[in-house]
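Protein record

Derive tokens from sequence
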Amino acid sequence: MNSKRPLPVQMSFSEAEYAGKRKRTRREKFLGEMEQTVPWEWLAREISKHYPVSGKPGRQPYPLETMLRIHFMQQWFNLSDPAMEDALHDSFSIRQFA
């Protein structure tokens, strides 16, 4: 499995300026703690045995670790699939964590 993590989401100029001038939200602090606490690489390695392989014809699967992070956030924040999709569009901190 290619365990390379996708490149981080690039901030726009306005997001970068705003990020430097505000305090961290509870969500950002929580996600920062979870980044350090959850053994992402180990989990991805264990799940990869059962995850679809990219490169086959048809729609390609999203990167495993991205989907794993999204699933965890759905559980932590009690979000349905449509609500998680909206959160990914609306929240920079959630997009960055995924």
Remarks:
- Residues 7 and 78 are 27 Å apart (CA to CA).
- Residues 64-77 form the longest helix (14 residues).
- The chain has a mean pLDDT of 84.
- The two ends are 19 Å apart (CA to CA).
